[in-house]
């Protein structure tokens, strides 16, 4: 009845990487174990895989998929006991840095209780914001320079470096500010 949907879910799971290489590595083992349980021989399934066994695999994969999909909404991604490293964090704004006459929002990952904050974890939001009205700036090249524009208030600024290059400098500064902050608090 819903067989097509189920197959579709598995295929899309494989395509989107929900099914990790780990699952694929485990499949032969699962096949062998199921073979041993059902037929008493480790290899008989490999030669003649019955429909019931395929159904069993399908269920196992679905169970695993469902488990991971429900977990991936949260912070970690794993198969029960074996938890793989975090793949993403939620980000929160921790401050605003003024650099190159524009404003950069400083973001930091929301950490779990067991994780330690490191200043190198911070990232600056791109593009930077207008210092006057807070709108995200736009950028274009003109005469070998970069022109930063604000669509909110019409501010216009010329710069030698582009947003990305400037953000790398600004990020180092922001990291230093946070390090100083931590040093002050600790000692
Ligand atoms: Zn503006």
Task: Describe the structure concisely.
The protein has 187 residues and is of the alpha+beta class.
Fill in the keyword field for this structure.
single chain, 187 residues, alpha+beta, three-stranded antiparallel β-sheet, 5 helices, binds zinc ion
Continuous helix count = 5
Strand content: 15-25%
How many domains comprise the coordinates?
Answer: 2
Shape: elongated
| Distinct ligands, ions and cofactors found in the model | zinc ion
Low-confidence stretches: 72-84
Distance between the termini: 67 Å
What do you see in this structure?
This protein is an alpha+beta fold and 187 residues long. The chain folds into two domains: 3-80, no CATH class; 91-186, no CATH class. It is 44% helix and 21% strand. It has helices at 3-15, 21-39, 44-47, 51-72, 163-186, and strands at 77-79, 82-84, 91-99, 102-109, 123-124, 138-142, 145-149, 156-159. The N and C termini lie far apart (67 Å). Residues 72-84 have low confidence and may be disordered. The structure holds zinc ion. Zinc ion binds at residues 130, 132-133, 135, 150, 152-153, 155.
Topology, pairings included?
Blueprint: H1 3-15, H2 21-39, H3 44-47, H4 51-72, E1 77-79, E2 82-84, E3 91-99, E4 102-109, E5 123-124, E6 138-142, E7 145-149, E8 156-159, H5 163-186
Antiparallel strand pairs: 1-2, 3-4, 4-5, 6-7, 7-8
């Amino acid at each position: 009845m819903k067989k097509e949907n189920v197959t579709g879910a598995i295929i899309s799971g494989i395509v989107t990487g929900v099914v990790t290489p780990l699952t694929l590595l485990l499949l032969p083992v699962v096949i062998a174990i199921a073979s041993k349980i059902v037929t008493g021989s480790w290899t008989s399934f490999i030669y003649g895989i019955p429909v019931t066994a395929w159904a069993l695999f399908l269920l196992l994969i679905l169970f695993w998929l469902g488990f991971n999909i429900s977990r991936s909404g949260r912070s970690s991604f794993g198969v029960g006991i074996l938890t793989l490293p975090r793949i993403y964090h939620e980000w929160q704004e921790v401050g605003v840095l003024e650099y190159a006459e524009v404003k950069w929002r400083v973001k930091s990952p929301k950490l779990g209780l067991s994780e330690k904050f490191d200043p190198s974890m911070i990232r600056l939001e791109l593009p930077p914001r207008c210092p006057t009205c807070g709108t995200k700036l736009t950028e274009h090249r003109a005469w070998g320079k970069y022109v930063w524009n604000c669509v909110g208030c019409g501010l216009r600024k010329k710069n030698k470096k582009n947003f990305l290059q400037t953000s790398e400098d600004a990020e180092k500064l922001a990291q230093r500010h946070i390090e100083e902050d931590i040093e002050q608090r600790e000692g």
